[in-house]
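note to self — DONT lose this again. spent like an hour looking for the file last time. sequence + predicted structure for the chain T wanted, 442 res
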Amino acid sequence: MAISLARIGSGLFISIHGPTLLSLADNVGEEVSTVSWLFAGRSAGVLAGGIATGFIMKRVNAVYSFGATCFLLALMVTATPWVVDLWLLVVVVLIGGITFGYLDAGMQALVLQIWGEEKSRPHIAAYHFTIAVGAFFAPLIAQPFLKEQDQQEICPEDSDNCKIVQTIANNSTVPNYGSTDAETSGVNPIVWSYLICGVVLVVVTIIFVVLGLLKVEDRVRETKDEVTEDREEEGVSKVLVLFILVCIYYFFCVAGETAYQSYIYSVSICSELCFTPTNGTWINSLYWLGFGSGRLVGIYLMTKFKPKTIIIVDLCGTIASMIIVCIFGEWVAGITWAVTFLFGFFQATIYPAGVSWTSQYTNMSGHYIFIFSAGQALGSMILLPFGGFLFQLDPFNVMYLILGCTVSNAIFFGAMIIEAKRHHTKGGKTLEENDYYTETKM
């Protein structure tokens, strides 16, 4: 329960930047293509935090470290909307990314250590579901405060026609907040949405401190000795090629996922879709609703189907949905609404199923846990700023980038399957060949 609450708080952090991206760009006086470097900073932090996880968790109490990390993340989240310098904003988000990366990899490693690969499958799926809960609520938390700002002023110049239409729509449907106390006092309204997210993380911090004092981790480990992961880690030379392919798999998997949730608000407002800020936050939350639904269903599916089967179905779903939205989405709003849910649904289990798939071939609960974070961080670090560049040329270009990510994701998963078979023929054992493992059958 504590880990789930921490994941909800992490979801708030990872999602709040999407609907407030235009406001943050306005804060620092930069275009979207420039402020998108905050995603690179966040991803660099996630990478650093993920790499440090295996070393930190062997030297400190996991529960106390999670509490301290949640508190530091709360500070960074609360500070974000106050920053008016671009590179200071990048640094603040980078530090937040380090804490997120440690929490993401550390808590996942703890689950794998305690429950083992087979028994942890539904736990891993639930673990990845709860982040979607926080991510779903983040745009809704931001929504009332975004109404108080003109979100179209920061759109690219090519979106002028959309700005005119949007301004007319806003004047006829949204009250004038020009004289609110927030604006009079010079406080950016989005400060309050970030403050709410920070308070949630402080509450989680207190819970972890209490659980640490009660020595809950030791008691849980004592009751799970029969399923605890006990395989030794293979030498890196034996699994290097597989790890490179897994890293690239997560490079494209998380880049596509993060690009969609980070830019869909801005794309829907600044493209020919011409959404209002209210509809923009709703479609942002709709993505996370689909994402959360997929991960909730995944908790059951992971107990009935092999990870490979789940990944193949998901990849087919994401590719098909992105092809549809790239062809029709900008001109038919209903298609964009529907595909946003479907893409989130199919994308949801690609990550956790990939963790379980990789864990079948080698122990991933120790030092190697950072491989997943490395892939996701590098993908977001490189492709999200590139997405900002494409956005500045034409907001809907971001969708073509995401389509490219989904296709590349499928290609490299095929390569992973081939390499796993080669690894097996060279003497590597899958979990089916270990005495303590019994494959769940359909």
